[in-house]
Amino acid sequence: MTIRVLLADDQTLVREAFAMLVESARDMAVVGQAPTGREAVRLARSERADLVVMDIRMPDLDGIEATRLIAADEDLAGVRVLVLTTYDTDEHIVEALRAGASGFLVKDTRPAELLDAIRTVAAGEALLSPGPTARLIARFLRGPSAQPAVPGGPGGLSEREREVLTLVARGLNNTEIAEALGLSPLTAKTHVSRIMGKLGARDRAQLVVVAYESGMVTPGTCNGE
After folding, report:
1. Are the CB atoms for 101 and 67 separated by under 8 Å?
2. Structural domains present in the chain
3. How far, in Å, CA of 114 to CA of 14, rounded?
4. Which of 60, 63, 128, 186 could pair covalently with 54 via S-S, beta carbons 3.0-4.6 A apart?
5. Model confidence at 147, in pLDDT bands (50, 70, 90)?
6. Which parts of 78-155 fold into alpha helices (H)?
7. At 166, which helix (H) or strand (E)?
């Protein structure tokens, strides 16, 4: 399948560079370029993109609000958002994850890593590196949140599901979760899917945010960080 990619960035040179890179991949195609967040939302609807590579700082409507509008639109339920930022300590990243983004990359990421990230997020996985991302989320979720990442909290989860959620928040994939809990990978995947269904989460990225917001995972508990 060809991944339909929409590029949203207010810098023309950046968009064009990303477009050339994406078009160089046989399994991807650029279906649109947006200089503003509002245009990104419009094109996501009209072009039926699979994934939006979204800059945070844009005129008219920033990337966070654009992500929130895309995530809230039932007609765009299958559209994933990969946020780009200049610095990996940007507190707006957490707000983007709360809004529905499936992960983030810094703009100086190597070309091959960007293409791999697009494939990962388009496949429904969250692009969350256990180290820097965990520290970042922990730092900015210590304060009160005006709006939780998902409608419900982890209170309705079973003990096993809470264990799985904790491991997801620590950056483990399904195979690693299975090994940690003595389960089959399929069973681990089923648990993750059920957790997302119970919490109304779009993907694993929002599960990570929920785990931190609820206090299930705290700073210092992720991979020895």
Report:
1. yes
2. 3-126 (3.40.50.2300), 140-213 (1.10.10.10)
3. 13
4. 63
5. low
6. 92-99, 111-122, 132-140
7. helix 159-169
